[in-house]
Write a structure and sequence with these properties.
This protein is an alpha+beta fold. It is 41% helix and 26% strand. It is built from 9 helices and 10 strands. Helix 2 runs antiparallel to helix 3 and helix 2 crosses helix 4. The longest helix is centred in the C-terminal third of the chain and has 19 residues.
């Protein structure tokens, strides 16, 4: 039944919608499927690819070249296929793209974007690139883009982190009310298990000669947050020595949590 639906879409609807079906299959392979489900998805993708008209296959290749996934893919809603294809083409050919965007506060703006890549993270689709008006890297949610139009000209994609890492770094350094700096004694893996890259940046020091990278040591952690009340339980769950460098308010919250836990533990 599912295969018949896919064939119907491919045969009777627009190229963009056909590509959206394939995109769903591709994303599904990254969404925590079981081995059996992943194999079925890959088999369906391969069968569909073999019967695609060449012009659709080329557009699919363009789209796949522009996609990147974080380690938290989640389950995705399929974005507007026409919008997705326009941005994917701009990524592949290094063409500027004009977008109309609505931010989280409801403010609307027109922007010119030098798009580096399309990233799937935690159930959402994002495009990351340089906002040409302010000459700074930005990340935009695809579901908040109302329109995209390729512009004349070209740009040179920067060297450095890939699109997925740029999106995660952008989340970790976004402007919020509180700036938090910590020093935590542990391994990178221990810290990242509770403070992933999308939440906090982690300053790793090169190990000295003969030192194992997995060795516990003091690492600097920085993050920004709109609220601080969620951090004390996270720090407690780390079960690692830590030092709060800023803000003082976080130190007060951690002390208050410790006092409450001590009070609960002493109750008969």
């Amino acid at each position: 039944m599912q295969r018949q639906h896919v064939v119907h879409v491919l045969a009777g609807q627009a190229d963009a919608e056909a590509l959206a079906v394939l995109l769903g299959l591709v994303a599904g392979r990254r969404a925590g499927l079981t081995t059996t489900e992943r194999t079925a998805s890959e088999t369906a993708s391969a069968k569909i690819r073999r019967v695609l008209p060449k012009h659709i296959a080329r557009r699919l290749d363009t789209l796949l070249d522009a996609l990147d996934f974080t380690d938290q893919p989640g389950e995705f809603e399929t974005p507007d296929a026409g919008l997705l294809l326009t941005i994917a083409d701009a990524v592949r050919n290094h063409r500027p793209v004009s977008i109309r965007y609505t931010d989280r506060d409801g403010r609307r703006s027109a922007r010119t974007l030098h798009a580096y890549g399309i990233v799937a993270h935690a159930g959402r689709w994002y495009v990351t690139g340089k906002d040409a008006q302010i000459e700074e890297d930005r990340t935009f949610r695809l579901d908040r883009i109302a329109d995209a139009r390729t512009l004349p000209g070209s740009f040179e994609a920067p060297a450095g982190p890939g699109p997925a890492q740029r999106v995660l770094s952008g989340f970790a350094t976004a402007e919020y009310q509180h700036e938090v700096t910590l020093r935590i004694h542990g391994t990178v893996e221990q810290i990242r298990a509770h403070l992933p890259a999308s939440v906090a940046s982690l300053e790793e020091h090169a190990p000295v000669a003969g030192e194992d990278r997995a060795t516990e040591r003091w690492l600097r952690v920085e993050l920004r947050a709109e609220r601080l009340d969620w951090l004390p339980p996270v720090l407690a769950s780390l079960d690692r020595p830590f030092v709060i460098e800023r803000p003082d308010e976080l130190r007060d919250l951690v002390t208050a949590l410790a006092d409450r836990l001590t009070s609960y533990a002493r109750q008969a």
